[in-house]
Amino acid sequence: MPEFTGQRDLRAYLRMVWRWKFLIVALVVAAPAIAYFLEHGKPRIYQSQVTLAINPSAAPSGNSVFASGNLQAIAAVVTTSQVANLAGAQLRPKVPGSAIVGEVSASANATTDFLTITATDQSPTRAAQVANAFAYALGADEYQQLLAGTNSQIAAIKAQLRGLSKTSAEYAQLEQQIGQDKADLQTESHGPQIIQAATPNYAPVGPHVRRAVELGLVIGILLAAGAVLLLEGVDRRLHSPDDLETLTELPVLAALGTGAFSAGLDGEPVEQEAFQMLRTALTYYTTDQPLDSVLITSPAEQEGKSTVATGLALAAARANLDVILVDADMRRAGTSARFGLRESAGLSSVIAESRPAQSVLTDWRLRKDDTGRLRILPAGPTPANPASLVNSRSMIDLIKHLESICDLVVIDSPAALAVSDAMPLMPAVSGVVIVARMNQSGRATVNRLNKIVAAAHGHLLGVVATAVTSGPGYERYSSHYYAATDKAPKRRGRRARAEAASGVRLAQAPSAGVATGGSEGHATEGDLPA
C-alpha cells in the first residue's frame, strides 16, 4: 500500500480503486440491494402507546417497588412475567404472557413522573389493546401488592387485639386502624393513573426500508474498502510503471500499451512512437559507454519480450542505424515468427555447424524513406540442447563479430527464469533490458531477475513496461496528434483505423533479398507477446 504523502500517492490510490472497480461496484450495489429485499419482505409493524402517571404516595407501603417511587424500576416491572400474565388475561381471546411480553417496552420520564408503555404488533388495533392491557395489568399488580400488604398488616393488628382488653383505649385505636386499612382498599386513588389511553395508529413504523438501504450502503462501502485492502496486500503483481521503477530502482525506458501485442511489424503511430522513445532512451542513458549490443529478456513468457526486441530493432534501423536482430530463443523462435521467417539455417546452424553468420543473415526491406538497415539472424532449427550452444565460446565470439559489422545488435532471448539460455549472454552484451507486463508480472519474479542479472555481471540499462494503460506520467500520443498527409476528409472509428493499418502493411511488404545467401523474408503479424 502506498503511503499517502501527496498528489502522486493520491493518484496511486485512485489507480488502485480503478483496478478493483468491478468488485467495489458489486459490493456497494449488492449490500443495499440485499438489505432492501430483506427489509421489504417483512410484514408491516404498527405501534401504540399509553401514558401513565405514577403517584408514589398512593403506593403500597413496605419494600414494594411502587413505594420507592423509582420510575426506572417501575418501568422494568412492566415486562415481568407476572404483569405479562395479568395483561394476557385481559385480552380476548386470552393469551399467555410469554406470547406478548416481547411486543412491549416501557420508558419513564423522571421530570413529569410519567410512564409510557409502547406495544408493537402487525395489527394497529391489537397493538392498542396490548398497550392498554399492560397498563391495566401494572395497576392490578400494584393493587395485589397493596392487598397483600394490607391483609398482612390487619392480621398483625388482630394478633395484638387478642392480648388487649376491649375496654382499653389501645384496643379501640387498633380497631380504628383496621377500619382505616379496609377503607384504603376500597378507594380508587391507588395505582398508576392513565393519562392517555392507547388508540390504534394506522401509520406503520416498520419495516425501515430506507434505513436498511442506507445501512447496507455503509456496510457495502466498508466491505469494499476492506476487500480492496486485503486483495492489494496479497496481490504481488505489478500494476503500473511506477511499481516497476520503484521495485528495480531502474528507469522506465518505455511504456507500451496493449496495442503493441496485436499490431504487426508496423503498428499504429502511437506504438511506433513508444519504440522510438525506447531507442532514444537507450541512446542517452548509456553515454558513459558505447551501446553495441542489447539483450532483451523478461522473467516469464508472454510478457512482450519479442515484441520489444522487434520494435526496438525497427526503430533503430529507421533512425539511420545498421541493426542486426538476433533471435536467440532457439526453443520458440518468437522473433523469427513475427517476421515470417522459416529458415532452414540460423543461429543454431552458425554455432553448431560453424557456418558464417553472413550466410544466414536476412536483409529486411524497410520503408522507402528509411535510411538505415535491418538484418535478421533467425533462430534456425531447434537443437537438442539450446543452453549448451548459447553457453559456448562460439556464441560469445559471434556477438563480438556482429558488433563489429553493424551499429547495434539487438538480441531476443528466452524468458530468463524459465530457462537458463539468457544468463551466459548477460555479461557478453553492452546492456540488458528487462521487460515486464503490467497486471501479470510478479514482484518476486522481477526482483529475482534483477538480482540474477547483477550476479551474472550484466549491465542493466533499464526496464520496459508493457500492457500499460495511459496514465499520469505515462501518457501516449493520440492518433489524432499525427496530421493527415492529404486533404481528403479523414474517416474516424474502428473501420477507418483498420483500413489505414491494412494500407500500411501493403505498402511496406518486405523484399526477397538477403545480405549474403540468405532466404527470402516474408512479413506476418505477431498476434501474441513472447
> Number of helical runs?
19
Distance between the termini: 30 Å
CATH topology-level name of the largest domain = Rossmann fold
Largest sheet: 8 strands, mixed
CATH superfamily of the largest domain: P-loop containing nucleotide triphosphate hydrolases
Count of discrete structural domains: 2
Helix content: 40-55%
Low-confidence stretches: 1-8, 477-481, 483-529
Measured by DSSP, the beta-strand proportion falls in 5-15%
Alpha-beta content class: alpha/beta
Looking at the chains present, what oligomeric state does this protein adopt?
single chain
CATH architecture assignment name of the largest domain: 3-Layer(aba) Sandwich
- Biggest sheet, spatial arrangement of strands: 5-12-11-6-10-7-9-8
Please give the radius of gyration in angstroms.
Answer: 46 Å
The number of strands is 12
Instruction: Give the class-level CATH name of the largest domain.
Output: Alpha Beta
The overall average pLDDT, rounded, is: 81
Q: What is the general shape?
A: rod-shaped
Summarize the structure.
With 530 residues, the protein is of the alpha/beta class.
Walkthrough of the structure:
The protein has 530 residues and is an alpha/beta fold. The chain folds into 2 domains: 46-196, Bacterial polysaccharide co-polymerase-like (2-Layer Sandwich), CATH 3.30.1890; 241-475 and 491-507, P-loop containing nucleotide triphosphate hydrolases (Rossmann fold). It has 19 helices and 12 strands. It has helices spanning 7-19, 21-40, 65-68, 71-77, 81-90, 97-100, 124-161, 169-186, 209-234, 241-248, 259-262, 269-285, 305-317, 334-338, 347-352, 386-390, 393-404, 443-455, 494-507; strands at residues 46-53, 104-109, 114-121, 193-196, 252-255, 293-297, 322-327, 362-364, 373-377, 408-412, 431-437, 460-466. The strands form 2 sheets. The chain has an 8-stranded mixed β-sheet with strand order 5-12-11-6-10-7-9-8, sandwiched between helices. It has a 4-stranded antiparallel β-sheet with strand order 2-3-1-4. A hairpin with an 8-residue loop joins strand 8 (362-364) and strand 9. Helix 7 (124-161) runs antiparallel to helix 8 and helix 12 crosses helix 13. The chain is rod-shaped.
